[in-house]
Predict the 3D structure of the following.
Amino acid sequence: MAIEMDREKFRKLFPHLAEEIERGVKKISIRAVRWDVEAGERLAATGAENDPWRGYMPDVIAFIRRCDTEEQALEIIDYLERKGDITPEYAEKLRRQLREKGLRSFGPKKEPGYYFRVAGYL
């Protein structure tokens, strides 16, 4: 559901919020969408602040982010669904996101050496 409003009306209704948006205060960029809340919570609970890969198990999103094409991503989704690692409902959500928002809506491509770079080894 989208609501359209002109800038002046928005500024009058929400002056502080408008100011923060225009100045970029506390701006957070979102680079990916994760539909599986539990997977995100598990990732957050790993204590990544000390060792970013401690207890890390790649999920379907991590595999999709290695893909170069949408066809490769569909193969990953189909395989993990067949194997029972993801539910048919979750698989369908991923396919819909892939169709509607594209491959990079899952996040930027993880190039070779990604995990070493993030951990600071390279």
Q: What stands out?
A: Residues 70-83 form the longest helix (14 residues).
